[in-house]
Amino acid sequence: MTSDNRFPSPFDIEAPEGAQGWEQLYNWYHLFGEDRREQDEQRFWFQDRLHHPEVLHPYDEIQCECWWQALGAFNTRVFAMPPAFGVDQRVLNGYLYVTPVPAPPEDLAARAELFGRRAGYYYENWDSIYAEWKTKVLACLDRITKISFEPLPDIEPESVVFERTGQSSGYRMIRDFSDLVQTMYETYQYHFELLNVGYAAYLTFFQFVRERFPDISDQTISRMVGGLRVDLYRPDDELKRLAREAEQLGIGDVLLEGTDPASVFAALDATDEGRQWRTDWDKTKDPWFLINTDPGHPGASHVHPTWIDEPAIPLATVKEYVRRLRAGEQIDRDTAGVLAERDRISGEYRELLDPADRTAFDQIVELARTVFAYIEEHVLYIEHWMWATFWAKSKDLSRALTAMGALDDPEDMFFLRRTEVAETLYDVVAAWSVGGTPRGANYWRPIVEQRRGIYEKLRAQPPVLAMGPPPAEINEPFTVMLWGITTASVSEWLAQRRTTDQGEKVTVLRGVAGSPGVAEGPARVVRTVGELLTVQAGDILVCPATSPSWSTVFGQVAATVSDVGGIMSHTAIVCREYGLPAVVGAGNAVATIRDGQRIRVDGDTGVVTILD
Is the bond preceding 157 in cis, omega lying within 30 degrees of 0? Predict the structure, then answer.
């Protein structure tokens, strides 16, 4: 069922050739089904390219489940967000689709009263609650860091007897896997303990200013809360510091002349100054290089390495900073300038307000600035540190299972669902316990082989952008502020679809005005962090979305265009901090714009024009 005014039904989307039966890869509750057809066919679904732009591995479904439940519970049941419940999820052809669930109109008044009292308590005590929050999350990080998965011993050490441990290694292995997964679920409770009330505070500020100044731009409002000083920028700051230290020690040429990390580090180890720099590099790695490189949500998949896994990524950035230092360029963000501009803009608009509104403005802008730090900073603690550690421990487990004969290859484990991994673990522990042979490898071998083939077929076909009827109004804060999915952007997607269906070329893309300014230049289409090395000074970055692992490119590009993202997305926030024009949530920029095409990015209006 399609028309000019709606997207295709999810029940009309067929599986790619050779991928029939893909449903077995995912949990049944994540799938569209005839029993929910009447409901789901009337909902607007969009592919979550911001967090999960790639086909999901079965094991990696854990990541989706973590935020699905937590976001919904804190929106719907804990804080009673007035306009919306949670964000529902479905998997179709391996891609994740989401839809905001509106609260019943008759409940809005009661929910608003509850939300005002509950969120108000958090706002009044934000600093102390945030400090407690960090303690809770870092405790979770410490807990999973201490988990160790190794092949089970032939004979238990004597300490089990003489220290009266009373537990076998096999039991602890089963327990530790359960704790690993459960700790990630717990972490996501904390993730959404603060995130949506933070977005709500910013949205309230946004609406307050917009009601009094209807013609004000989104970026102007956003610039009133800029000038972040948060740990999220610390990894990039550490790379800049290492570049300066390399020049001070006189080993900058060694970095620039090396062709790969191994040759660079070997050359550095040959001199006292080089060894001193290497020591600093190694100390800096943990935790500041524990940065995921996913093209979407940091840590959303096990397949993407961290900076620690791929030192070529941070090393290339250090080299670039050395080159720019030698050219006499300023490599630091102009935080002082952003703060000065923030105070100028907010001061000018404050003066235009009625005296009765100024007190409310002062309170609401201060709250928005307070919660804004968390909105960016939590990404480092959870999306990077927690998920990087979780995936590393999961890979340790997959190697241990393989060594014990439960799997043929460590990667096989990631084609099993979470509960299937638990079954496999029990099988191998039971066999170890009785001196038998685990059944896992023989049982899973044909299943994994089939799933791997299906997975590759799913990857070969891009997902549909959206499905179902566009809603009359989109007002769920998370959807608007982070994804950039608004009533206007959905209308633009429909217009683009009509244009391409008629065989016409798309020459103008409209998205969210993420960061002010206008720039022209050659497009550099980048889909993964590994392709960032192709970016040249003055290019315009065109990408699905960015994450903190991309932060080092913002010192080179002239502007940024992303397929997804809202005014509070990472791309928009960082571009404002770096003073770069940005259009986010442009829909199909990566698929429409060719590498090297000259384009104009108007970050004031949210318009991208293809000039060639």
Answer: no
